[in-house]
Amino acid sequence: MLRGSVRKTSLLKSNSINFLRNTRTTMFMSTKASSDITGTSNNGSTPVEPPQVLFTVRDTARVVTLNRPQKLNALNTNMCSMMFNTLNEYSKSDMINLVILKSSNGKRSFCAGGDVATVASWNLAKDYNKSVEFFQHEYSLNFQLSTFNKPIVSIMDGITMGGGVGLSIHTPFRIATEYTKWAMPEMDIGFFPDVGVTFALPRIITICNNQSQMAAYLCLTGDVLNGEDAYTLGLASHYVTHENLVNLERRLGEVTEVDVFRQSDKYSDKQDRGDKMMNIINNSIKEYSYQLPDNYKFRYSDVQLDVIEKCFNITKVQNINDIIRNLESFEGSVDAKNFALEIKDRLSKKSFTSMDLVIRLLQDNSKDHIESSIRRDLYTAANMCHNNVDGLSEFSEATNHKLNLKNREPYPWKNNLKAILSTQVTSLTSPKPSIPISLLKNNVDVTWNNYPFHGKYQLPTESFIKNLISKKDFTKESLIQYFMNNNVFTKDKVGVRYILNNIIRRKCKPTEKASLLKWVD
């Protein structure tokens, strides 16, 4: 039996975490940081290196601040270990209502990823244990964040890539700003989109993703998205301008048990109380949310979305060569064909080993539960560090080429000329007796197949809308009114009309009967 599988069943039935013991408020808590290190010794004379992660108190909230600005907050083993251990302590406290995860680097970066340049150097020196230890700590932190028993608000202000996506994607509240730069760029260094994103993206992306097409496209191409597009696609749950973040953080620190009582005269049980706390946090963020710019236009046109939808369906391909053939043979307008060939040319310059891994991981992790998915990422990362499957991984050499040696030319992939077998991909994603490794145990012993809160607080997905109109008759306007006026979670939410117009235009057509909408696959 899987660890936490029994708890998982009961958790999914209630669709929430037991927050009761975690939402009691201490009304007179000090706002001074309990572990704030100033950068000087006790006598104020000898400078010391500032901590790479800061842990501070803001009333009933705890603020975790990444503080490695010179490396754009790239994660190392120490940072992941500090956060994991501190979050374990937070999970046991009755005095904490929520956790805020942010950066000290202003609008420049939230987190640029894991420090893979150092990992590559360790691998080339055959110091594999250090590399595997890093990934063990990073992925254990990702799993901890995904099942944490308190609300977490991640502020993705600035560069949010790779490991930075892993810190935010699993949390129910993910804030994008006008400075957000979101991407999973691992294909360029021969790695793979790790940190649980092949579990997350099939479930949360709003547009062009009924068969994980947009998830596959973003993982394979490494496209960089701005904050508005990240929000529209569901990668962020809210859109807040940079200048509003200070006031938002202050407001979140003020969220107390009193707010729960104000929302209702009484609550029925522990789960109800926890849900109300989540809703209060959501509404608090909405207070500071900002309308998308007047001139905002979604990055991908309808023509491009059609190409992505038809060429990147992971249920109909076995490997990257199938996708490349789809792109080469795509039939459509001139613009559509040009886009398909442009993407095909971009993919041909990336690691075929890594791209085959992406497809397999999306296929497996889109059906699996979160713990098993992140564990699979851990096995894959360890195998790529050791390069123990027929020498297929060029991760260390390509990373050294690009990040350590600063070569501007793409790495010359040696294995792209080889036929990669399905059994080799399976071996890369499987545990090896020679590398005994597991996720570190956290204090919340649960796992699940779907996030219990993500769908409530982000923009609606195509699959949700498809399911809705299959059960009830809607016209275009009545569907929009349902989400904008009747649905408590999307009412007054930024961008609702915009995304509905996009989805209805592409995926629905009116029937002859009273212009009712019919879904078109």
Short descriptors:
alpha/beta, disordered N terminus, 4-stranded mixed β-sheet, 521 residues
Describe the protein.
This protein has 521 residues and is an alpha/beta fold. It contains 22 helices and 12 strands. The protein has helices at 5-14, 77-91, 116-124, 128-146, 163-168, 197-204, 213-221, 227-232, 245-253, 257-263, 270-288, 302-311, 320-328, 334-347, 352-365, 370-386, 395-404, 422-428, 454-457, 462-471, 476-486, 496-507; strands at 53-58, 61-66, 98-103, 109-111, 152-156, 159-161, 173-176, 181-183, 225-226, 238-239, 508-510, 517-519. The strands form 3 sheets. It has a 6-stranded mixed sheet, sandwiched between helices. Strands 4-6-8-9 form a 4-stranded mixed sheet. The longest helix has 19 residues, at 128-146.
Task: Count helical runs.
Answer: 22
How far apart lie the N and C ends? 38 Å
Shape: globular
Please tell me how large the radius of gyration is.
23 Å
Mean pLDDT: 90
Characterize the biggest β-sheet: 6 strands, mixed
**In percent, how helical is the residue content?**
40-55%
Can you list the strand order of the major beta sheet? 1-2-3-5-7-10
Number of strands: 12
Tell me the quaternary state: single chain
Unreliable segments (pLDDT under 50, ≥5 consecutive)?
A: 1-41
* SS content category: alpha/beta
Keywords: Hydrolase, Isomerase
Organism: Maudiozyma barnettii
GO molecular function: 3-hydroxyisobutyryl-CoA hydrolase activity; isomerase activity
Enzyme class: hydrolase
Strand and helix map with partners:
Elements (H helix, E strand, L loop, with lengths): L4 H10 L38 E6 L2 E6 L10 H15 L6 E6 L5 E3 L4 H9 L3 H19 L5 E5 L2 E3 L1 H6 L4 E4 L4 E3 L13 H8 L8 H9 L3 E2 H6 L5 E2 L5 H9 L3 H7 L6 H19 L13 H10 L8 H9 L5 H14 L4 H14 L4 H17 L8 H10 L17 H7 L25 H4 L4 H10 L4 H11 L9 H12 E3 L6 E3 L2
Parallel strand pairs: 2-3, 3-5, 4-6, 5-7, 6-8, 7-10
Antiparallel strand pairs: 1-2, 8-9, 11-12
Helix pairs in contact: 2-4, 3-4, 3-17, 4-16, 7-15, 9-11, 10-11, 12-14, 13-14, 21-22
